[in-house]
Design goal:
The protein is built from 12 helices and 15 strands. By secondary structure, it is of the alpha/beta class. Helix 4 packs across helix 5. The radius of gyration is 20 Å and the shape is globular.
Length: about 350
């Protein structure tokens, strides 16, 4: 079969690799029908995730068709259409039993495209298949369901839920890439009074406006001044960091009001300064997190009921064997306007 393989920092190749086989009785083999690329894949390609070894197949999100299951698998069968989650869960350990699947102690967590071969391939082996896949709702579009593999549960859980977004809040999202836009979309479910998007790219601010932001802060504008004017000098109730660089994290701590929440969603590769000399007396709560995907069933129900418009994130579409071209487009969003790409089996 063909797959996109990591060959070390800065090197990737779409090439022939062995088709995966069942290794544990809890595994499933899934034919990949629709797959996407994540910003984390670009971090891996840049060499920022040293746990990923050369030869690893990229990818941790997919919609596909079950081809084969192990003897212990009970919830899915060959022929079923499934969402392959970015998080694998053993379902038995201390963390899994409390819904913290991202911290799984039983061999799960973020595995696909990280510690085992991933989804950017014609087929993928899914560990712990019963607790790491979800049935595709009847009538739901593949592209919409695909957005529930990672960006929507990540933004909802680590940004909106950790940030305690409530009706009437002023919510600022710093970074209007796919994660930030998903945070705007899911924050809107709680009826905030204002949704503020901060980004340097006009195309992404345009996307933020389409997805519900009513205040846009772009290049050359002062986010602190604009948020202060919007809140009578108080500051935002919730500031969601969706970039993953020191400057945006520190900006969020300046934008939030006393007693407010900073929810960090971005993946940081460098240290950020925590200004406790300013924050300690302001009762600010700062949260971090890896997605657990406990919310995926809820989001799927909302999608099936027409309450969540998820396919609007996809801006570019490719055939599966156009993986190299898709990476080129996705890695240059300021030039291409790419938010999420979708690759389909032909």
């Amino acid at each position: 079969m063909k797959a996109l393989v990591y060959d070390g920092p800065g090197r990737r190749a779409w090439r022939e690799v062995p088709k995966p086989e069942l290794e544990q009785d809890s595994d499933a083999i899934v034919r990949v029908d629709t797959v996407t690329i994540c910003g984390t894949d670009l971090h891996i390609l840049n060499g920022d995730v040293p746990e990923v070894e050369p030869g690893r197949v990229f990818g941790h999100e997919a919609v596909g068709t079950v081809e084969q299951v192990g003897s212990a698998v009970r919830m899915i069968r060959p022929g079923d259409r499934v969402l392959v989650s970015c998080i694998s869960a053993c379902g038995r350990c201390r963390y899994c039993r409390t819904g913290a699947f991202g911290q799984c102690l039983g061999g799960g967590g973020w595995m696909l495209g990280h510690l085992v071969d991933g989804t950017q391939a014609e087929y993928v082996r899914v560990p712990f298949a019963d607790t790491s896949t979800y049935g595709v709702p009847n009538g739901a579009a593949d592209e919409a369901v695909l957005m529930l593999a990672d960006i929507l549960p990540t933004s909802y859980e680590v940004g909106v839920r950790n940030g305690r977004v409530s009706p009437g809040d002023v919510v600022v999202v710093v970074g209007a890439g796919p994660i930030g836009l998903a945070a705007l979309t899911t924050a809107a479910l709680f009826s905030p009074s204002h949704l503020v998007a901060v980004d340097l790219a006009p195309t992404r601010l345009d996307a933020a406006k389409r997805l519900g932001a009513d205040v846009l802060v772009g290049p050359g504008e002062d986010a602190e001044t604009m948020v202060a004017e919007l809140t009578d000098g108080l500051g935002a109730d919730v500031a969601i960091e969706a970039v993953g660089v020191p400057a945006t994290f520190e900006l969020c701590t300046r934008l939030v009001r006393p007693g407010g929440h900073v929810a960090n969603v971005g993946v940081h590769g460098k240290p950020a300064t925590l200004h406790l000399e300013d924050l300690w007396s302001r009762n600010v709560t700062i949260t971090t997190g890896l997605v657990d995907t406990y919310s995926t069933p809820t989001l799927l129900r909302m999608l099936a009921a027409g309450r969540l418009d998820a396919d609007k994130f996809v801006t570019h579409r490719f055939d599966l064997d156009e993986m190299e071209q898709a990476y080129d487009v996705f890695s240059r969003p300021q030039e291409t306007g790419a938010l999420k790409v979708a690759l389909h089996r032909t």
